[in-house]
Amino acid sequence: MADKVLTEQIDGRSKDELFKIAAILHDLGKFDRLFKVKDGTETNLPTHTGHEAKAADYILNDDYVHNLLAHDYGLTEDQIKYIAECTRLHYELGKIRKVAKQSEEGYTLAFAKTDKCKEACKEIANQFPDFKVEVGILFMCDSMAKTDVVVNGATDEEIEAVKQGPVNNAMAKTYFEVLKESNI
Predict the structure, then answer these.
(1) Using CA atoms, how far apart are residues 172 and 34, in angstroms rounded to an integer?
(2) What is the pLDDT of residues 146-176, one digit of tens each?
(3) Model confidence at 2, in pLDDT bands (50, 70, 90)?
(4) pTM for the model
């Protein structure tokens, strides 16, 4: 399924080639950080809420980034839009955590096997039919990139992200099984 989708062409370049650029740029929006506010006081802990949309905005609207892609790499507007949309959607599957946290199982391996998880996966795939494969792959890549973050001085948020790795992988597996079974 992924091979078929990623071999499709946009203006003469495979989605696979463009997807690799999106994978590199997907967290670009984290450079535009906000800081958490706790009890009305700003802390020194960054939050990356909304970084996906910020990354897409940089790709589409920042003169430096857009010109780099268009002029230095020779990408067309449609190719750049594809890259931007992949970055914007790279965390969509992660939003299932909200569903999981409200479930009896919580965000656990057991939840990844439930009908509630499968239904949430279907909803995401149906919401983004032209990017359903990319959503799943980017979520897996993003999750796997967090595996070595636990070092001296790691924040609680970073440690929690690493602990979620096995659940993220199980959920991504369920997502792809749903895509295959449902022929979405």
Answers:
(1) 28
(2) 555 555 566 676 666 667 778 888 999 999 9
(3) confident
(4) 0.83
